[in-house]
Structure formats: structure tokens, C-alpha cells
Amino acid sequence: MMPGSSGGSWKSSGTGGAGGDGGVPDQFPAGLRVLVVDDDSTCLMILEKMLRHCKYEVTKCNRAEVALSFLRENKNGFDVVISDVHMPDMDGFKLLEHIGLEMDLPVIMMSADDSKSVVMKGVTHGACDYLIKPVRIEALRNIWQHVVRKRKHEWKDFDPSASADEQKQPEEPDYSSSANEGNNWKNTKRRKDEDDEADERDESSSLKKPRVVWSVELHQQFVAAVNQLGIDKAVPKKILELMNVPGLTRENVASHLQKYRLYLRRLSGSQHPGGMNAGFMGSDAGYGSISSLNGLDLQALAASGQLGQLPPQSLATLQAAALGRSNNAKSTISVPVIDQRNLFSFENPKSRYPEVQSQHLTSNNSSKQINLLPGIPTNMEPKQFVSLHQSGHHSFGGMNNLVLIQMGGQSQVHVHSQNQTQSQAQSNVNTHNVLRQPVMSNEMLTRGGVADMAPTAVYNPVVSVSQASSLVNFSMNHKTDSCGTSYPLGGSLGISSLPTASSALQGDGNLDTKVSRKGIVPSYDIFNDLNQNRDWGLPDVGLTFDQSPHTIQSGLDGSNPLLHQHNRASGRDLGGHNRNLTSGKVVLPPGVETRTRHNGSNVGQPRNVYVKTENDIDGSCHNTLYSEQYGQDDLLAAILKQQQQQQGVGEPENEFVFDGYTLDDLPV
Amino acid sequence: MERNQMHSRIANIRKSLFEQGYLDEQFIQLEELQDNSNPDFVEEVVTLFYRDSARFLYNLDQALEKKPLDFNQLDNLMHQFKGSSTSIGAKKVKIECTQFRNYCNIRNVEGCKRAFQNIKKEYTTLRKKLEVYFQMSRQVGAIETACRPR
Asked: With contact defined as beta carbons under 8 Å apart, do A206 and A147 qualify?
């Protein structure tokens, strides 16, 4: 994005308007770039006309997913978003949340409904304004104020006073109260502003601020730090210290933390109110039975129902890394056993499952993740545990398939995906398969040492992501129904790891970031999926696992199990959700398997990695935190290529079209 | 003159549409958006409305045939339809939609069905009137163009 055009021209934003500097003298608000989303074509046409009369630049779309993909692809392409509340494919408020989390743009809601509760909902979800239809042009003339206000806050808030706010956060009472929500949101907003501000310091004149990009790896580190501190005690300062990332400011962390909290809250609120942190596998109540992962510490983590801890992204990253690595013969992904329960623990699958059924973490990230999975080298050191979750009956989706893959390291990730058959020989980790489609029915167990793929949903706790190596925990349960989300693979393949991972993936190593981004469904997604899986449109599940039934799922037979993405679960359920929203990208192409081949080494067998990605329709949006960074497309392409070679898992896309959002029938 | 007569006729038609409550202020908003670069804007919007809303009416019809009635679904459909109607300023249609929703809220089946009949009636009436109006406007416009000094 263009840093500060001195001219403050609106167009100087990344979209390449007037080239930013010294650009157009102050025409503001003319040229304000507005994105309008409304399913009603008549309204859309009228709004467009009105906005053009105000001299704004208008882009219209009548589907929320399309809007999200626009936004993701043009990170700085818009200044403000106007969205209808009532839309068939995705609830306007969900869209609002996604945008808030990922892009931090001002969003104006509109509706013919002017009842107080709806307006309040808009406020609590973070809308900066609420217009009642029919909208008059006068109301639109002033929308620029929201853009200015936001930026102004960004600048202004960048100061120590923000810290005070931060400190307050942990004390905020339960999120459920709307008052809190409002607070949270505001804080978040402020934080985001702060972040932006920090970045833009030198660009004071510009209204556009580059945003901190939370890459998969970065997010993994973040989550690891948060988990280490404990979600309640995690304050930005400490997180920052733990992360130890140069150049990252406390404000960045604070802002991100806020979002993360919202995400968690949302997940836990809907799913399991108390599920989080349930403890070790014991909490598999929801899951169905996480017990399978006994061998793995990760499992415990996973089981602990701390869901949310492991952002899908991290998982994705890990997975990606793993995958990437697995491809390489030398993929030695060391999977550090993460002890932290909460590290990527997914929310209790159980809570998720019911709904999630086959949710695939299709968030963009997830898709990425999935891709990675395939690549996960099956050779995981024994001690690395792979938390492949095998819950045969658990919907895969739900379970967090955390694939613990330790990337970057030498250890090979032994991913064992287990289909429902669970017993799958562990050797077979089909990461590929699994990754391929979101529906990973197979659980991929990375054999870190867990040999048994217990049928119970193994929740792989996940991976602590160490900077160097990210552990991808693939716990894929394959449950046909997809347990939703659990796809921890979340696209976040650590960036660093990605490179390796990518190689694993494709063997050509270019999975990297691209993949992770999309594939990894940021933890948010996972959580979201869990909760919402239904209603959320599947924004973009990065890793969409092919839900098509044809995926090999059933096959997990040892060697090639791969992921088949298991449609099992869901093909149907995914169907709804899974739409591969993900920007299509990630699909763990069967090719992933090939990677594992390379590895040979331990992973050898368990190629079946079934990663169940939940395509959470709406959930995935969150993932987008990372998604944009990586060229999903590349990753996808790579993965697909792999797939092709590998097996015929066929086009992953059966249901999921990886090219962008194809949510056709999201079950709303 | 013919042209003036036509103009005044059109003006009268338009005036009566407002006075009789077929159209409201929102329609004026649309007219204000119309300009030389887009001289048929209002007509385009209205055409688009009628085209899209046909689908809603069809769905509503179907939904009203169900036994028992799914009031939530009806309400949702009507909400959308009403939103559309409002955006073009179809006042009477909007009023009938509100009635419909009221009946829906109290779960009055007969009331809903009756209200729906009223909606369809108003909807159709308005369309006819607007068709005449637009047609005349176009004619006048054409005449004017034809007569414009080169």
C-alpha cells in the first residue's frame, strides 16, 4: 500500500490510485472508495447511483462472500464498506465481524429494519453507522466521516494511554454482555487503530495506513505466547516479549489480541460455554473422544477444549509446514511436542460437532493448511506427537485436526491420517489427502509417537509453535460429519516454516506462505466454524478440503489414505459450509501425498492425513488474517498439482472450488 | 401544442401518482438521481424492481400454500420484498406489506392471505401506471430530441 501519499489523496492507497504521493490535492471526500453489499439488486443500483452522485468510487456486489474476496484481494482497495443486514448467503453482522477482524475498515450497516435491537446489534458488532432504508442520498454524503474518524483514532491513540486500555482488557467481564461487547469492540477498534497508527507514523499525512500483517507464523507465535501465559493473563506486553519479534509493537499485539479474544469468545460462547480449557482430553465430551490421542501430549491439549487457543492459522501453518516438509524427502519437520494444552486446542469438538458437522475449516487459511498437510512429512519423530485425531466418528471437521507438524526442524512429521478406520497404520499419513479436501475425514495422526489412532476423536492439542518449528497438529478426525472445524490446520503455516513446508507440499517448496495463508484458517476460523458453522458463510476457507465423497477417505488404508478429504463427512455437511469458499485455494491436493513419499522416512506411511477442514462458511473469514499474505493460488496450484500426480483424489474441488468463493448454497 | 400538452399530461399523471399515494418521496429521490448521463435511470430501476420482485412474489405464493404456514419464512420473504418496494417509493405496496407482516406476527393466516392479495393488486396497478408514465415520458423525450435544433 502506498504509504502515505503526501497528498493525502484517496487514491493513493494500495490500489494504485494516483500513486500516492503528492497526489491529488484534497478532493476528499471525492474518490472515496466504497464497497456496497446488498442482495437486493434494486437497492444496489440505487445506492450505487447515489454514491456516484457523491463522487465516490463505488464497487457493488450482491453477495457477501464475493465482497469478502474483493476485500481480501485488495487489502487497501476500499475505504469503507456499506452492507445490508439481511442477506441470504451470509448474515450482515458476520460479514461485519470478518471485515473488522481482517481488514479493519469502517463498515456501515443498513436495513429496512429499524428496531432497536437490530441497531444495537450493529453497534455491538462494530458497525460504525447504521442506516435505515430507504437510504437517502444525504445520509450517504457524510459517510466519509467514518473513514476520517477511524484514521484519526489510529493516530491519536497511539500513545501510552492505550496501554491503560489494554490493561483493562483482561479484566473485562464476560463477553457475553452486550455492554462488554461494545467495549470489546471499541477496544479492538482502538487497538487496531493503534496498530495502524504505529505503522503509519511517518505517514501522518496519509490517510492510509499500512496494516500489520499477521502472517501465519506470526500468529502462531502469538497464540503460543498467549497460551503460555494463559488466555486470561495474556497481556500485550508480555505476549510481545514472549514472541520476541522485532518490529512488532505492543499495539500491534494488543489489537490482534483483541480480535483474537473476540474470536474466542464467539467460539466459546456459541459452542461450549464452558468448554474451553476443559482440560485435557477429558474434555472430550464434546469431541467425542479425544482419547485417541493418548500418546500425544498434543492430544491433551486438544482435548482440553481450549479451543481457540490454537488458531487455525497456526495449525494451518504447521500443517503447511509439515506438508511442505513432508514432501521433501528431508522434510523433517520436527514437531515439537507442545505441551501446552491450550496451544492449539480446539474447542471441544463436541461442542462443535453437533453443529459443525462436517464443518470444514474452510476458511482460507484452512485450506491452506490442508494443503500443507499433505505435505506433512510423515516422518515425525516418535516423540513428536502427532496429534492426529482420529475420531472415527467424530466429525472430522469438528475435531481439530491439529496436525502437529514440527516444521522446520528435522524431525519428520509423521502424519498419520487415519480414517475412520482408525487403525490405520500409522504409517500412512496421508497428508496429502487429508489436506486435500477439507473434509478430512481421516484423521491425520502425525505419528509423533502416537501410534494409535484411537477412534475417538483425537484432538490434537497442538502444537506449540515455536518459532522455528511449528508443530502442526493434525488431528483429523474424520468424522464424516465434520466436526467442524477442527481443522487446525488452519492455514497458518508459519511463514518460516512455510517455505519448508511448501517444499514439502509440493515438493517444490513453494508452498510457503502462500499456502499457509490461505490454507490456514486462522484459529478464528476454527472456532468460528465450530460455532457457527452453519451460518457463517464460508468465507474463505483457505483450505477447503474436498468434500466430495469421493475422496478417499475410506481408504485410509495405510498407505494412501491420504486424506481424502474426506468427504465423508460431509460432503453433505460440508456442502453447506464447505463451500470452498476458500478462495479456493487450498485444497490439499492429493499431491501432498507425494510429498510424503519423499520423506519416506517415518512418515512414510501415514499418508493419510485427513484433515478435516471445516468450511465454515463464515468462520473462515477470520482466517483471512493471513490469507492475503500468501498466495493461495500458488499454494493451491501446487497442491493441486500434487494431487494430480498423486492420486487421483481427483480434483479437490469437487465441491470446493478453490477459486475464490463458491459458496453456492451455503446453508445459512 | 402537442409537446406542451404532452408535457402537462405527463406532469399530471405524475402528480396524481403522488397524490393518490402510489408513490412517495423516495421516488423523487430517484428522479433526482436521474440526469443527462443517465436519462432513463428511474425507469431502469423500476424495471429492475419488477423483474426481481417477481421472484419474491412467487416465493411468497408458494409459501402461502404450505400447510401449516411458516410464518418466519413468510416474514423473511416479505421483509426483503418490502425493502425493495420501499427503495423505489412504492407507497401503497409498502403499506400492504406492513399489513402483511402485522398479520404474520399475530399468526393470522387469513389476514396474511388477504394482505397478500392486496399487495399483488397494488403492485400490479402501480406497474401499469408507471408503464404509461414512462412511455409517455419517452415519447416526449423523443419528440424533444427530434425537434432539437441541430
From this structure: no
